[in-house]
Amino acid sequence: MKLTGLNIVITGASSGIGLAVLNLLAKEKTNRILAVARNAVQLLAYYAENVEPFDADIGSEEGVRSVFREADNVFHGQKIDLFYANAGFAYYEEFDYTDVGRIEDLFRTNTFSPMITYAKYLEHLDGREGTLAFTVSGIGLIALPGYAVYSASKFALDGFQQAVRLEKPDSLTLVCLYPIATDTPFFRKASPYPFKKPFPVQRPETVAKKMVEGLAKGKDHVSPSAAFSAFRYLSTAIHPLRSLYWAEETAKFRRFKKTVGRIRGLL
Asked: Total domain count for the chain?
C-alpha cells in the first residue's frame, strides 16, 4: 500500500500510539487525515493543514456513525482509504466487583467500537478497496494480572479479527497491531494509584514506525517487539518461561495492592 494521497481516519489520535502514527502519516502532505479523539479539536487545533481534528466518543454506535458522517464531509464524498481504529483504554486494578457499567464502558470502546467500525467500513466501501487497522495489544494474546477486564476486551477483539478474516471480501485489507507496554499516557490513565508498567516497555515512536511499515507492506499482523514475538514462540515450547514472567508480573501486582491499601488507609 502506497501511503500517499490517501484519505485517512485515525481514532485515539490525540496521544500515544495514535498520535505517533498521525505524526508519520501527516508528514506526507498529499494525505488528508481526520484525527478523532474526545478532545481532538482542543489538542490538535493547529496541528497541520492536512489534518482535520474531530471530537467524538467512539464508545457508542452513534459515535462511530458520526465519524463516518464527518469523514464524508471532510473527504467530499470520496472513500476512506485507511481507517485506523486505535482508540482504547485500560484499568489496572483487582477485579473484585460487579459494576457491570464499568465493564461495559471499557468493552464499548475497546471491542464493540472496532466491531461496529468493521461493519460500517464495509458498508462505506461498497466493494471498493480499503484498509482497516485495529490496535489489538500483546495483552490480547497473553493476559496479565491487574488487567483482567482489559485483557478480556482485547482477547475478544483478537477473536473477532480472526473470524472476520475468514469472512471479509478480498477488497478489504485488515491489519492488526499487537504492541507491548508503550510509554504513553495510556498507563497513567489506567489507575489513580502508582504502578509499574509490564515488562518490557517501548516508545510510541517505535511502535508507530513498525505499524506504518506494516501498513505499507499490507501485513496481516504487526508485532513491533521482536522480543515479545520470540517470547511467545519460546514460551509455547518452554512452559516455565511464561510461568516465570507471570510470577514477576504477579509480584508487581501484589506490591500495587499493598500500595493501594496504604493510600486508602491514609484517606
From this structure: 1
Q: With respect to residue 252, please indicate whether it lies within any of the assigned structural domains.
A: yes
pTM of the entire structure? 0.94
On whether residue 2 sits in a domain, the answer given is no
pLDDT the model gives residue 147: 97
Domain span at residue 139 reads: 7-266
Residue 92 near residue 249, CB atoms below 8 Å: no
Q: What is the C-alpha separation between 216 and 193, in angstroms, rounded?
A: 39
Q: In the chain, what percentage of residues exceed pLDDT 70?
A: 100
Kindly state whether residue 177 falls inside one of the protein's structural domains.
yes
pLDDT, tens digit, 9 for 90 and up, residues 61-104: 999 999 999 999 999 999 999 999 999 999 999 999 999 999 99
3-state SS string over the chain? CCCCCCEEEEECCCCHHHHHHHHHHHCCCCCEEEEEECCHHHHHCCCCCCEEEEECCCCCHHHHHHHHHHHHHHCCCCCCCEEEECCCCCCCCCCCCCCHHHHHHHHHHHHHHHHHHHHHHHHHHCCCCEEEEEECCHHHCCCCCCCHHHHHHHHHHHHHHHHHHHHCCCCEEEEEECCCEECCHHHHCCCCCCCCCCCCEECHHHHHHHHHHHHHHCCCEECCCHHHHHHHHHHHHCHHHHHHHHHHHHHHHHHHHHHHHHHHHHC
1 assigned to some structural domain: no
